[in-house]
Amino acid sequence: MVYTYEMHGLKLALDVESGALHVLDEPSYAALQLLASAECKDAEKQILEKFGEQSTKQVFSEISELQKKGLLFSGKMPISSISDGVVKALCIHLAHDCNLRCGYCFAGSGNYGGVRGLMPLYTAKRSVDFLLENSGKRRHCEIDFFGGEPLLNFDVLRETVAYGKKRAEELDKVLKFTVTTNALALTEKVRDYLNSEQISVVLSLDGRRDVHDRMRRLPGGGPSYDAVLSNCKEMVAGRNGENYYLRGTYTRHNRDFTEDVLSMLDEGFDQISLEPAVLTPDKQESLREEDLQELFAQYERLVDVLWQRELNGKRANFFHFELDLKHGPCAKKRVSGCGAGEAYLAVAPDGRLYPCHQFVGEEDFYAGHVSSGIIKDRLNRFYGLDTENKTVCGSCFARFFCGGGCHASAWIINHDLLEPYSLGCALHRKRVECGLYLQARRMLHQLGSE
To answer: What is the spatial distance between Cα 445 and Cα 450, in angstroms, rounded to a whole number?
Structure first.
């Protein structure tokens, strides 16, 4: 499969199976569009009539050479969907409580539909043991501290990191820790600890003050922007601007989300992620199909802004645009995505296991306990849940950049794990287009071609 498109003056073609990206002139672009169409049977004749004999001969010669090299119209990539049964990452819910009340929160303001509470230290330690015991021969494993707000349980976080590092060293393994936080509890003591331990941080900020404060409010209804922004700045400065992401969420209220990214950039942040809120259609904040063209235009505007900044020596990484075409995910990960329910699991404060953090608290997705292990029958529906088994993915050019989409989003919107969230798919395809465009610009710039 070859996918062609234009963006900001560049004509591009992606060979989907090989991942090869091609920058094209007008004759080549026209030829590939015709060849990629199942209905076209006289591509060479049409190109000859439009561009002449010399251009036609050169174009089809180059296409033939690329085909021989497996870089155009390449064959289907053989991929095994068999799981090795190894758990590689664990999301530990240190707190089912929160010091914010966000309007789009999937976790029911932090308690996941249950009682508010914190994870005891013995459960956190047992979670570490569970991961190490179930990681097989894999040496590098990951733990993400999550909530609610995990820093409400900071003492347990700190003890868990110390215990995890000790146990990993004993087993000749390496644990990488991340904490996802709304930044309200980032005191100097907490910041110094996270920096000294080199723990990755994901910091939540939604961009402009009015956008942020509309959705991310204190329990009493007050704004949180000033405190969050200040703490985020201190946190990032304390680690020399490294090992962090500033993560925002946009809703129907800020469809002009490029302005929010610009606000983050203006505040000095250069590692940014901005995600669309996944909400059921009945919610006022939920994105709708009629919003798509406006949202597509915002992504195209954003990638142009980021490229112009980069040309001026102010590179910023926007998470969804940073595609690695040379050393990207392994073949298995390309079709299976995040690995929820297989390589990745979440632990509730009581030690119960779930396929991922967004399924926590849903009894139908309960999958075992860190003390007694995985109930494999409860996870069967997640095995082989990849692009190979999702009908709509077969014709999607971006399928190897998402692995079939978010399982939780599919469940929230469609109540069917095999039916991806269509609006989310459309937005992701646009982000992939923008990411490919950005990589093409960088390659041309390195070659001195622009």
So the answer is: 6
Residue written as tokens 């329910």?
341
**Pick from 212, 160, 154: nearest CA to 186:** 154
Query: Mean pLDDT per 10-residue run, the chain (450 residues)?
Result: 95 93 94 83 86 91 92 79 79 96 88 91 98 94 96 98 97 97 96 96 97 96 97 96 96 96 97 95 94 98 97 95 72 61 91 93 93 90 75 86 86 89 94 96 86
Which residue, among 72, 85, 68, has the nearest Cα to 24 in the 3D structure? 72
Instruction: List b or e across 64-100, with b for residues whose CB sees 16 or more CB atoms inside 10 angstroms.
Output: eebeeeebbbbeeeebeeebeeebbbbbbbbbbbbbb
Closest CA to 215 of 253, 272, 259: 253
**The residue count for the chain:** 450
Backbone angles phi, psi at 294, to 5 degrees: -65, -40
Q: Which amino acid is at 386?
A: D
- What one-letter code names the amino acid at 22? H
Task: Classify the C-alpha dihedral 318-321-326-328 as positive or negative.
Answer: positive
Contact 47, 53 (CB under 8 A): no
> Could you check whether the bond before residue 148 is cis, i.e. omega within 30 degrees of 0?
yes
How many other C-beta atoms lie within 10 A of the C-beta of residue 110? 22
Pairwise CA distance, residues 1 & 226, whole Å: 49
Q: What is the CA radius of gyration of the chain?
A: 23
Q: What is the pTM of this model?
A: 0.92
Structural tokens at position 248: 């925002």
Given the DSSP bridges, would you call strands 10-15 and 2-7 parallel, antiparallel or unpaired? antiparallel
* Nearest alpha carbon to residue 152 among 98, 222, 219, 226: 98
Residues 6+ away with beta carbon under 8 Å from 292: 423, 426, 427
Are residues 375 and 365 in contact, defined by beta-carbon separation less than 8 angstroms? no
DSSP string, 325-336: SSS---HHHHHH
How is residue 114 annotated by DSSP? S
- CB proximity list for 147: less than 8 A, separation 6 or greater: 93, 94, 95, 96, 97, 98, 107, 110, 180
Contact call for residues 404 and 335 (beta carbons, < 8 A): yes
Name the residue among 376, 358, 366, 351 with its Cα closest to residue 87.
376
